[in-house]
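Hello again,

I reread your note about wanting to compare the complex against the isolated chains. To keep things tidy I'm splitting this into two emails, and this first one only covers the full assembly. Below are the input lines as submitted, including protein chains and any nucleic acid or small-molecule components. They are followed by the predicted structure of everything together. The single-chain runs will come separately.
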Amino acid sequence: MLAAADELLQREGMAGFTMEGVAALSGASKVTLYKWWATKGVLALEAYSASVNHILSMPDTGDIEADVLAHLKTFVGLLRDTAAGKVTAELLGAAQTDPEMAAAFRRIYLEPRRSIGIRALRAAQERRQIRVDIDLEVVSDQLWGACMYRLLTGWQPLDDAFAGRLVTNVMCGIKPGNGRTLPPAPER
Amino acid sequence: MLAAADELLQREGMAGFTMEGVAALSGASKVTLYKWWATKGVLALEAYSASVNHILSMPDTGDIEADVLAHLKTFVGLLRDTAAGKVTAELLGAAQTDPEMAAAFRRIYLEPRRSIGIRALRAAQERRQIRVDIDLEVVSDQLWGACMYRLLTGWQPLDDAFAGRLVTNVMCGIKPGNGRTLPPAPER
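Full-complex prediction:
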């Protein structure tokens, strides 16, 4: 049922995502679907989260800058090149006028995904690659959150160069004399 | 008409925002409203943008870190303590399933607001307070964009401490040995 829901979501977006559609595609009855998922929003969130989980695992080479950069490149690629971008944006968009959807978005999509980044950053903090006084939730907002914001506004391109600059700015700072004084070599 | 539209928007949010309501409150006819604004979304965006413009001016003390911090504190206060937070979130949320609304959001709200931050950052770059190789659009996403993302997800509090950490992380970096090694003194 989750696979059918994800297929429909990727194809139709939230506008064409209905319990009827998932029932037709999966062979399950609407009664069965509603037994497991109270609303189509929750079903869409679970289906979507399940489908991106294996793609968005975090590498662990021991170098936090390289690991986060690799993860962000995968993330921006997913948002830019697949239906995942539109789906994520629509789900978070719908959450703005639907408090139940907002709670489900946090619980089903955001919390599990976000904890992967926080866990990697915390391990790096324990290895002293990140200062101990740094609030990692804020760092997460400035890396993955900034990608999501760019997705939602459509203001500038989501690409590898963007991912690289996000990491450099936060890791090294943007002041003269801090960290690198030249842009990093292209990392692709 | 813009004042009436803003009043209705702040009171009712997008759910209760209608051309009828604005007509009743302003005394203008619906025909007149539609003559000036093609959709209620565009009217809502113009009314909202006009109402926050004077609040969100950028200080110019010559110290980019202080100026950006002051602006971000005003911005998070506006999003947290007034109806502006819900209104902005709903407008950007609606843009996710409405391409006309998305274009209007970029043109009417985002571009003018964003250019204020970019202009201040560029002046600081010319004063050599920011490295010349830094992409200021990315910095904007990591400061104001991160605030918007936190607003949209409701994941963590929007407060002065958050504003301070956003600025410190980006200006000084989060690696040991870069910039400050202790958290900044509370700046309130």
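For quick reference: The domain at 56-174 of chain A is CATH 1.10.357.10 (Tetracycline Repressor; domain 2).

B.
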